[in-house]
């Protein structure tokens, strides 16, 4: 099978899936008394014909890409990482801790690197907890990573309610990052460099899982762990490392979102980022490059959600319905492709 | 084949990355403030935006905001009213406000407490747009195009506390709250002090949910309080139906918040603090359109209460179990709150440790109550600081 021949139908299927979702959503729009053409026009104009919105898409995309990669790497080893939500929070918490520790004294480059390292290590260790539970006690990592999300949230709340709280008066939050601890932006725009980090990590992860011995081994372990064990692979180390690398990527996503957008830890920090990334990864069928597309789609939808409210007067939940329809349509079409190729 | 395809992808991505990297620079040079304007901020605006943290039909805070925005629609037929619900209390709020500004809004109501950071950021970037925030307090210098507004909701909560204190049999009241912010702390303290004024043995047990509207946590908090013997439940949440229904189901009494929810609790409803934003919103919009915002009372931390006579928070209708005697006591207390000597916090006020915080006979100001950071004696719960 040639590349050109398969690429075209895949693109066509994506377009078909998106179109199908939009048609179904039109019916919903009409039942809510909105004109679908006006609604889509409003969404298009306020999302893709407004430079601020396009910048916003790239800003929102960055943590989604990294969060989705955090699902993709363990998936290669046959592991389900539902813990992106918590790993993102812990990554941001570690970055914030590093900022509070170094205070205002450190110079710009240094403090950002320190925050980045802290977030990556913390994310990896947090995911490592789930890996260890699996290896030692046989706990399914889909359950443990999910439950650790709630623990991570409690850790965050404890810190911002007590030791790290900016002021006893006011909503619980940490103090704002100083300017040197904020991610720089791409000149002429409001987009921070998180998008560059995200794109670079897509390439790195692609090379890691497709070009390295380790990448080959985790896919063997993920395909058939018994066969892998019998051929002499250390499956436990592969499980541990795959999940920890996933956690590291999610931790990085947390740092990017914290130092690039929020600048403060608040009670709802990163809410839903991990779960949205999880969906984006499934939409991209766990492949690094398609993750860029999926994250772009999710970020665009999120930005377009405002238009549905402001231009068409629809409820805030409408955009979630549209997102779900698109996800189902795309996943449905990809399953068909699998059958056709089998 | 596979190899060739992926090499191309790698090459493309790498070059994209290189291009983007080449365009990088530091954060400092990009913040250009937009739009110079001739007139006063917000003057003659043809659109007004409202952002809400929750759904506009939540039987509570956001519904009250939405109803206020409907009043604006009627009062100013030429003004377009833009509303956005479910806007989180983080940087996304700034994004949504930016979209409203692009649609012509030069006046934005950022209506949740945690929207303040985003509101100030937007105000700074758009000197020609007025951003007013509901319920929080600006503690730094107040810019010419920003302000906060609120009523003294702890005053009706004090009155509701009288109804609760008179009605309880277990002498235990339950309070489900979101965050330990001064507004909430003042509510809880006023509620307890209102109850104490008719029932010295009463205590108020508090549970926080760390969310303005999370029905799952609300249910758990309500059940936990009921299991401790609480027989009157109240709350500081944005969406109120879950706690009220939990109380009614358990046969407990309830004091509502934001909206008259007596229909949800026909048996146990006592009363509640209900919100009527219409008149205040209308006056703010008129002030801004006329170009009179700068230096006005709204270009400040504006507070109204029973003393000024225009409190947007009023007492809800009474339920069946509230006696005439209690109603008389509430009427008397309300009249006193409207005078210079009246306040839910007339000294002596003791904190949980029994230390005197407000000296005997002292009547704290609205501004002082807005900075409250301690629980009074009789409140059970740990105020994290």
UniProtKB/TrEMBL annotation, chain A:
Q: Which GO terms describe its molecular function?
A: transmembrane transporter activity
Nucleus as a keyword of this entry, yes or no, is: no
- Residues that span the membrane, as ranges: 12-30, 57-79, 86-103, 109-133, 145-164, 191-209, 238-259, 316-336
- Metal-binding as a keyword? no
Q: Which UniProt keywords apply?
A: Cell membrane, Membrane, Transmembrane, Transmembrane helix
InterPro entries cross-referenced by the UniProt entry: ABC_transp_permease
Any one Gene Ontology cellular component term annotated for this protein? plasma membrane
Main subcellular location? membrane
Q: Which Pfam families match?
A: BPD_transp_2
Recorded topology in the membrane:
Multi-pass membrane protein
Subcellular location field: Cell membrane
Q: Which PANTHER family match?
A: ABC TRANSPORTER, PERMEASE PROTEIN, GUANOSINE ABC TRANSPORTER PERMEASE PROTEIN NUPP
Name of the protein:
Unannotated protein
UniProtKB/TrEMBL annotation, chain B:
- Provide this UniProt record's keywords sorted from A to Z: Signal
Keyword Transmembrane helix included in the entry's annotation: no
UniProt organism field:
freshwater metagenome
InterPro entries annotated for this entry? ABC-Purine-Binding, Peripla_BP_I, PnrA-like
Q: Please verify whether the record's keywords include Nuclease.
A: no
This one is known as: Unannotated protein
Q: Which residues form the ABC transporter substrate-binding protein PnrA-like domain?
A: 47-297
Which GO CC terms are listed, alphabetically? plasma membrane
Pfam families reported in the protein's UniProt record: Bmp
């Amino acid at each position: 099978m040639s590349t050109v021949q398969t690429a075209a139908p895949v693109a066509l299927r994506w377009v078909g899936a998106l179109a199908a979702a939009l048609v179904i959503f039109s019916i919903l729009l009409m039942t809510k008394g909105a004109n679908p053409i006006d609604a889509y026009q409003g969404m298009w104009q306020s999302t893709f014909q407004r430079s601020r919105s396009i910048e916003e898409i790239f800003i929102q995309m960055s943590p989604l890409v990294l969060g989705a990669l955090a699902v993709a790497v363990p998936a290669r080893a046959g592991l389900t990482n539902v813990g992106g939500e918590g790993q993102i929070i812990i990554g941001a918490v570690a970055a914030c801790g590093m900022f509070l520790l170094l205070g205002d004294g450190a110079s710009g480059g240094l403090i950002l690197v320190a925050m980045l390292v802290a977030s990556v290590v913390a994310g990896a260790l947090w995911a490592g907890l789930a890996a260890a539970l699996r290896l030692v006690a046989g706990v399914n990592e889909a359950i443990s990573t999910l439950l650790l999300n709630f623990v991570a949230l409690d850790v965050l709340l404890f810190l911002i309610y007590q030791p790290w709280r900016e002021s006893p008066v006011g909503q619980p939050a940490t103090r704002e990052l100083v300017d040197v601890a904020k991610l720089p932006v791409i000149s002429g725009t409001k987009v921070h460099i998180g998008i560059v980090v995200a794109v670079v990590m897509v390439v790195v992860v692609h090379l890691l899982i497709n070009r390295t011995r380790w990448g080959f081994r985790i896919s063997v372990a993920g395909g058939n762990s018994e066969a892998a064990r019998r051929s002499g692979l250390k499956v436990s180390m592969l499980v541990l490392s795959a999940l920890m690398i996933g956690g590291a990527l999610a931790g990085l996503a947390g740092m990017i979102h914290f130092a690039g957008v929020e600048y403060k830890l608040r009670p709802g920090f990163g809410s839903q980022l991990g779960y949205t990334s999880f969906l984006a990864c499934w939409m991209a069928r766990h492949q690094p490059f398609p993750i860029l597309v999926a994250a772009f789609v999710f970020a665009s939808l999120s930005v377009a959600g405002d238009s549905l409210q402001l231009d068409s007067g629809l409820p805030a939940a409408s955009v979630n319905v549209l997102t779900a329809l698109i996800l189902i349509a795309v996943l449905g079409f990809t399953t068909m492709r699998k059958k056709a190729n089998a | 084949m596979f190899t060739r395809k992926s090499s191309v992808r790698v090459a493309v991505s790498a070059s994209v990355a290189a291009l983007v990297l080449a365009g990088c620079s530091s954060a400092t040079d990009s913040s250009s403030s937009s739009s110079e304007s001739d007139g006063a901020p917000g003057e003659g605006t043809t659109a007004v935006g409202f952002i809400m943290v929750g759904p506009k039909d939540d039987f509570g805070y956001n519904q009250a905001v939405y109803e206020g925005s409907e009043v604006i629609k009627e009062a100013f037929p030429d003004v377009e009213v833009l509303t956005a619900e479910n806007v989180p209390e983080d940087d996304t709020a700034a994004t949504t406000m930016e979209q409203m500004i692009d649609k012509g809004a030069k006046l934005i109501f950022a209506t949740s407490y945690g929207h303040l950071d985003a509101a100030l950021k937007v105000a700074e970037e758009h000197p020609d747009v007025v951003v007013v925030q509901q319920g929080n307090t600006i503690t730094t210098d107040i810019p010419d195009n920003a302000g906060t507004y609120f009523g003294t909701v702890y005053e009706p909560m004090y009155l509701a506390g009288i109804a609760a204190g008179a009605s309880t049999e277990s002498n235990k009241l339950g309070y489900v709250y979101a965050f330990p912010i001064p507004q909430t702390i003042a509510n809880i303290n006023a509620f307890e002090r209102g109850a104490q004024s008719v029932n010295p043995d009463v205590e108020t047990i508090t549970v926080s949910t760390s969310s303005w509207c999370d029905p799952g946590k609300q249910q758990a908090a309500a059940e936990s309080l009921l299991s401790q013997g609480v027989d009157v439940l109240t709350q500081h949440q944005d969406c109120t139906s879950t706690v009220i229904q939990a109380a009614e189901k358990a046969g407990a009494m309830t004091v509502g918040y934001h909206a008259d929810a007596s229909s949800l609790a026909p048996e146990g409803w006592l009363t509640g603090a209900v919100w009527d934003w219409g008149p205040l919103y209308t006056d703010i919009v008129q002030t801004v359109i006329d170009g009179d915002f700068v230096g006005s009372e709204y270009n400040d931390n504006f507070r109204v209460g029973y003393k000024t006579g225009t409190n947007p928070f009023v007492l809800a209708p009474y339920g069946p179990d509230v006696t005439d005697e209690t109603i008389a006591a509430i009427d008397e207390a309300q009249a006193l709150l409207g005078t210079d000597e009246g306040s839910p916090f007339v000294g002596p006020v003791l904190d949980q440790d029994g230390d005197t915080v407000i000296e005997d006979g002292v009547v704290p100001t609205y501004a002082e109550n807005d900075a409250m950071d301690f629980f009074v004696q009789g409140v059970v719960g740990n105020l994290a600081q």
